């Protein structure tokens, strides 16, 4: 098992290398550069040219790439052109914000979706099942921004239960209890929105898994032993039905850092998704490339994690 | 009720819902199972034999199944019991063995746990006693290293071993009745022989009655004491095993026996039955259900409402058409070749 | 005279693993099999699941890569030419599969299914093609209007007939039938087997009949080979195999087959147990130190057994 894990990590190196070249080229293909946004009617064109030259943006792309990758492997992803600060620490701060938001969202998501999926599957075709299906299609059909805005309007502006933007109230000092409480308070509304929007997939998947598993031969065997129905569910049906969800858990965990572009932008929450959008619109190359590299790495790590989780929960799957 | 009767099925009808109406897959079946007996139910796919077997202990989808008639066991009609009431009988008094032992075992549970499960709910054994009983059962079904096997998962065992485990589960609470639904169909012949021998051995040890569901007349000839042949939801012939194989009467039984490529015969052609089994929806519900497949028999030879007639002690045949049945060779020049009755 | 010769055919599958994903083991699916096939005869290939019988069939028709050995067809070595589309070999050797349902494309009409080999191998005008399809449907006893239907509209036995119609469309010399009746009910099985015998006589076909069912194989075949662990343990005429089995594996297999009569079953059971004990005891004598089946040794002109030479 350790051998496989080491091998998979080594295999990531060439994959990430190819990804980095692609990303670098694509970023360079984008029209404009970091200084386009600074141009005003009064700007001296030679000043822009000077800045561009100084930043090394006039060199051929491969030279720029080599310069970038040499630093990147040392963990230095350069400076953000727009934020004027170290990319690594910028991403680190945003990643932490996103992590807490996603973490709460995922917990809420599973807390809502798993019981609903199980109940809908168990009482297949009942009124309860139909209600759950209606709920899940409703949340599936409603666009992210609509639900977010509705929630913001009702709970943020009208009822004033929750703050409407940011990740923390500025009046608190970092490290204090109030600071932590304020952070948590800011997370709740976007997390609930995020969770509700994500439930459809899990509910539908789990529901159909339960319905399929109910008809499996081994469930019939379990019933033929005369064990109580609730035990048939808890020991046989539910466990087997959760397998595909466990298989996806690796991606879910690494996905926690990815953030949601829509939710973060609408709720004005300074996380990775929001950073990604703003860095693209301002052509902040160093941030874009660093972020895409990170997403690439997380995806590969997620698939490895999923494989490891599967080998733990399903005895039929073994990692040599 | 006679004292050696274990189970008595009376005029059982089991219908499945197809588009809002019910169609009977089992249509008026009556059967008796006695102690120390292996009763085989044979028939081709779709004849209702598996439906019959699984509904004895209520293993069907209740919302889409309609059951009428009586399944009498210990003075209780199993057909009217609730799921909870049935759970007191399943595994303890009546247990089942299924066809494909790989899909019939939970892939995520260790063998030991799966055998132990029935014991938890049907016995007062302590956890320690149950573990010991599991090892004992594994040994009993001929597994060499029960300690290791009980900790393994189903996919780690061979097909034959898995079916042995299924048998261990079935006999774990010393049931009065074991229902074996195609227990060897998924296995190779040498393994099949071992499993059948084991089944007979277990039956003799425990004195249980076995209902053996199969499509293989060879298996019936090797292990059964009594045989019921099913066609289109009905029993069309029932007899002690020797009687059935030596003096088959119903046209269907006789046709089937002649369509087996046998080891010890050198005939060039097999008997093929004309036409095919009508689907559940289009099954003729009146008259002799086999008549469409023996069209050369006069209409008057069939009964209007074919009943089972006892033509010798313990030998029942449905309809009267068997008296005029001869084998029909349609191929070739189109003439019928007559066989002596 | 044989029209096809198979020499020491081997199909090995590498098992990959380890840190560098290198070949760490080999599965010897078919491990040195030789056969000679004559026109108009039926050859049976019998063995338990995993013995390599299906792999051998697939290797002959070109669906499996051959590791070593050769296939001669009409005197020519065609071992590596089996995959050429439109070659004579591909036209003359056809296959019927066990699962007639999944081997027929569900989105194609019956006439297109049957026309496929015709279009591949025979240059016919559309009119001739049409006539050929009608002819084939008649041969397999299907009504003319079946050509416009789709596979799901037919029963298992009918689908198997359609599979047979497709396989005989190009007037093949050899049909490899991999468990053609295992999925069918007894009465339908009899229909298909009778029919396969009819067309064999009519078209002077050879069959390579792959099955686990010794009764079926005995009914259909003149010559039978028993396969175990990728090799033949015994090969001979059906009389050799059934009346004079020599290899311990054959004996055990034969004793395990249920007889369709209850008379003498107690005796058969005792016999079976005796053979099983003998098998456990004598097993080693019939295999070399690696557990490999020994080479075949002739004991008569037609009968070969894998045993130490005597």
TrEMBL record, chain A:
GO biological process: transmembrane transport
Keywords: Cell membrane, Membrane, Transmembrane, Transmembrane helix, Transport
Occurrences of domain ABC transmembrane type-1 (ranges): 95-306
Its membrane topology: Multi-pass membrane protein
GO CC terms in record: plasma membrane
Cellular location(s): Cell membrane
CDD domains xrefs: TM_PBP2 (cd06261)
Bilayer-spanning residue ranges: 9-27, 99-120, 132-155, 187-206, 242-267, 287-313
Primary location recorded for the protein, binned into one broad class: membrane
Superkingdom of source: Bacteria
Pfam families attached to this UniProt entry: BPD_transp_1, BPD_transp_1_N
Similarity-based family: Belongs to the binding-protein-dependent transport system permease family.
UniProt-recorded name of the protein: ABC transporter permease
Species the sequence originates in: Lysinibacillus telephonicus
From TrEMBL, chain B:
GO molecular function, one term: ATP hydrolysis activity
Source taxon at top rank: Bacteria
ABC transporter domain: residues covered: 7-257
A Gene Ontology cellular-component term: plasma membrane
Keyword match Ubl conjugation: no
Entries under PROSITE patterns matching the protein: ABC_TRANSPORTER_1 (PS00211), ABC_TRANSPORTER_2 (PS50893)
Membrane topology: Peripheral membrane protein
Pfam families in UniProt: ABC_tran (PF00005), oligo_HPY (PF08352)
Subcellular location: Cell membrane
GO biological process, one term: peptide transport
Gene3D superfamilies documented for this protein: P-loop containing nucleotide triphosphate hydrolases
Keywords of the record: ATP-binding, Cell membrane, Membrane, Nucleotide-binding, Transport
Similarity remark: Belongs to the ABC transporter superfamily.
Name recorded for this polypeptide: ABC transporter ATP-binding protein
UniProtKB/TrEMBL annotation, chain C:
PROSITE patterns given in the database record: ABC_TRANSPORTER_1, ABC_TRANSPORTER_2
Residues annotated as domain ABC transporter: 4-254
Highest taxon in the source lineage: Bacteria
GO process annotations (BP): peptide transport; transmembrane transport
A Pfam family recorded for this sequence: oligo_HPY
Key word Signal present: no
UniProt keywords, alphabetically: ATP-binding, Nucleotide-binding, Transport
Gene Ontology MF: a single term: ATP hydrolysis activity
Record-linked CDD domains: ABC_NikE_OppD_transporters (cd03257)
Annotated family: Belongs to the ABC transporter superfamily.
Record protein name field: ABC transporter ATP-binding protein
Origin species: Lysinibacillus telephonicus
